[in-house]
């Protein structure tokens, strides 16, 4: 099963993707986690993306697309995957569509975690304290949500047109949202 999770920062995409990964034996491919690991390891990629992430901006498409393409080629992703944090704009969505077509794979479902900005902001501020996330400051959160609405939110319609977009009520508690996810994935399995 090839899945994509979409929604604003703080919508619980990573939390739910980790549960899906465990229950369905799929790799959770999170660009944010990959970038943060590169920063922590002090790699060349980490040095390039650290100031970008700290400012709340998006990592350039070319870097992100190459990172995802390499990761989808890993053996554990052959049987399926959960993409989290990519695509973030129309150019990346087009690149993903082209990449998947080239390797003969398609998305089975796009899980859209819909969440109001005030709830997203509250969650990210809490996450900053709990996880020590330096990229979750009030100014950066405001910038990230503005970029989300300008660049990422429009691709929801891109994927809605496929008939595979599944809206989820991300403002609900974790278990209730996961129940919605399981219902959606059950329907995917029956297609």
UniProtKB/TrEMBL annotation:
GO BP field: nucleobase-containing compound metabolic process
Pfam families: ADK
Signal peptide: none
PROSITE patterns in the record: ADENYLATE_KINASE (PS00113)
Transmembrane segments: none
Keywords linked to the UniProt accession: Kinase, Nucleotide-binding, Transferase
InterPro entries according to UniProt: Adenylat/UMP-CMP_kin (IPR000850), Adenylat_kinase_CS (IPR033690), P-loop_NTPase (IPR027417)
GO MF, one example: ATP binding
SUPFAM superfamilies named among the record's database cross-references: P-loop containing nucleoside triphosphate hydrolases
PANTHER family in the record: NUCLEOTIDE KINASE (PTHR23359)
Protein name (record): Unannotated protein
Organism listed in the record: freshwater metagenome
